Amino acid sequence: MSLNNFGPNKPIHTVLFNDAVATELAFIFDEIFEGDSKKMEEMISIFKTSVKHIDKHWQVNSKPAVKPKLSTYGYRIYKFHSSAQLAKTPNEPPDFRVVFKYVEATNTIEILTVGIRVDKYNNNYLPTTHDIYERTKILSLPEEE
Fold first, then answer.
1. Superfamily covering domain 14-144
2. Which one of 60, 78, 95, 141 is separated from 110 by 20 to 30 angstroms, measured CA to CA?
3. What single DSSP character describes residue 33?
4. Which of 94-103 are b and which e, b meaning 16 or more Cβ less than 10 Å from the residue's Cβ?
5. pLDDT tens column, 30-85
6. The pTM is what?
């Protein structure tokens, strides 16, 4: 399944996926969804839609990252629900994040990673080491290589 398949709508920007995206998707499948391919397929579908939203209106549909490592290099955060059921639940905040940045010089959207947000209240009963912001701390950013 290609993440670059935008269907009949061509992307506005060149969309590049960092190698960490594949690594994190495998982690999500194994550790978050515990091998549940149905949940993973739904999340991948919503992730693809999220990438399309980022491509169309990245400035409107996201916020600047506030975590030091990410904010230093101009990364932004896009939030999404991992399932349609969660999206329909009243007052349920999005549980997943896409970390990306727009590079004006090349008109490129660079997707750094995707992952689950494990908040301090740990409402989803996952260890905080699974949190996307904790995982980006150990991620080698392209700007640092």
1. RelE-like (3.30.2310.20)
2. 95
3. S
4. ebbbbbbbbe
5. 998 999 999 999 999 999 999 999 999 999 989 999 988 899 999 999 999 999 99
6. 0.88
CA-CA distance, 90 to 3, in Å (whole number)? 29
CA–CA gap between residue 61 and residue 66 (Å, rounded): 16
Sequence ranges of the domains in the chain: 14-144
Question: Which residues make Cβ contacts (< 8 Å) with residue 131, sequence separation at least 6?
Answer: 115, 116, 117, 118
Residue for token pair 């007052």: 91
Residues in the chain: 145
d(C-alpha 132, C-alpha 139), whole Å: 10
What are the structure tokens assigned to 97, written together? 């994040």
Cα–Cα distance measured from residue 130 to residue 132, given in angstroms and rounded to the nearest whole number? 6
Residue with tokens 């997707």: 111
